[in-house]
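Recap from last week: sequence in, structure out.
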Amino acid sequence: GLRINGVAGGCSGLSYQFSLVSSAKDNEKPINEKGISIYINEESLNTMRGSKIDYIEALQGAGFKVTNPSATSTCGCGQSFS
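Predicted structure tokens:
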């Protein structure tokens, strides 16, 4: 599955951290979406509630793009938020 955490760092205060894992930790809420298991801990879930996560392939590279309606600001590169 895909583990997503909002961690301290980045130019706007928090940044997204993604990792591929085989199972959830005890403090994570599993979410199943389109056949994919997503694991988010409760603290990160509160800051990411309502977010849309896409995997994008572009000329600049590939990676996850998060559209977070709870973010009050983001950095120019889109990798961090507050």
